[in-house]
Amino acid sequence: MSATPIALPAPSEEIVSVLDKIDLFANLPDAVFETLSENSEQRDYAAGQTIFSMGQYDGGEILIVESGKMRVTIVEADTGAMFIDEFSENDIFGLEIAMSSSSAEAVQQLSVTAEEDCSVVAIDATTFRSLAGQRPTLMRNVAMHFAAELSILRYRSMAAQAAPEQRVYAALLEFVKRDNVTGVWRIESMPKHRELADMANVEESDTANAIATLIQEGVAVRDYPGMLINDMTRLGQLSR
Questions:
Q1: Residues 143 and 222 both lie in one domain
Q2: Distance separating alpha carbons of residues 7 and 98, to the nearest angstrom
Q3: 132 and 196, same structural domain?
Q4: Which of 7, 72, 87, 148 sits CB 3.0–4.6 Å from 91 for a disulfide?
Q5: Do 113 and 71 form a contact (C-beta atoms < 8 A)?
Q6: 226 DSSP β-pair partners
Q7: The overall pTM is greater than 0.90
Q8: Which residues contact 16 (CB under 8 A, 6 or more apart)?
Q9: Tens digit of pLDDT for each residue in 153-195?
Q10: Domain total of the chain
Q11: What is the CATH number of the domain that holds 221?
C-alpha cells in the first residue's frame, strides 16, 4: 500500500521498457516480462509527495525508479538517529524486504518521499518471488544484485573506519530535527565539540574539522545557537 500518487496508467510495453534497462531483469524471456508487467503499475509523484508514510511500507512492492529521485528516511527507534538515502533513475527499492522470509517489522520506522518529481514502476512482491523461484536466471540476477550491494557496503564500512569525520556526521544526525511547519532540517542547539567527539569516539580536533567541512561545502550553515541543514541528503551520505 502507498499514498495516493498522481496516477498515469502505463501500457505493458512501457513498463517492460523500464524493466529491460535494469540488470536485475537481464536475459529473461518475454513470458517473464509479460507476467511482471501484468502485476506492476507505473506511478507518478510530485516533488515532496509522500510515497510511503512512516510504518506504511510492508514489503508488498518493489519500486523501480524510472525517473527523478526518491528519498528514504529511517529513524532508529532507540536513539532517534536518522539515516537518509536517495534512489534515482534505475535504482531498486524494497528488493531486500521482498525477498526476505522475515516480516517487514525492521522497516516500520521507514518513510519514502519524492525528492523531486519522479516516476516509479511498482512490482508486486509476491509475483516477483514466485518468478524468482521458477526462473534460475532471475534468481541468479538477484544474487548478483545483492553481491554488488554487499561489496559497496563492505567498502563503505572500511572507509568509515579510516574516516573519523563520518562517525562525527553520524553522531550529529541524532540532533537533527525537522520543523513541522517549514520543513527545514535544523539542530536547535549545537552540542559542544567535546560531546560530539565522545559520541563518535574521535578526537575533538576531528569534530571541529568535520563541522568546518560541512559549512565550507554548504551542507550546513550556522544559526546560533544551532545549525541549519541545507542538504540533509548529503549529510546522510557523509555519515556512511
A1: no
A2: 23
A3: no
A4: 87
A5: yes
A6: 223
A7: no
A8: 33, 34, 36, 37
A9: 665 565 555 578 888 888 888 888 888 778 889 899 998 888 8
A10: 2
A11: 1.10.10.10
- pLDDT band at 30; cut points 50, 70, 90: very high
Would residue 200 count as lying in a domain?
Answer: yes
Q: Average pLDDT of 211-221?
A: 90
Rounded to whole angstroms, how far apart are CA atoms 40 and 127? 9
Cβ-in-10-Å burial (0-12, 13-18, 19+) of 199 comes to middle
Indicate whether 205 pLDDT > 70. Answer: yes
Grid coordinates of 161:
573506519
Q: What is the pLDDT of residue 10?
A: 47
Question: Which of 157, 39, 50, 151 is CA-nearest to residue 98?
Answer: 39
Q: Which domain holds residue 220?
A: 163-238
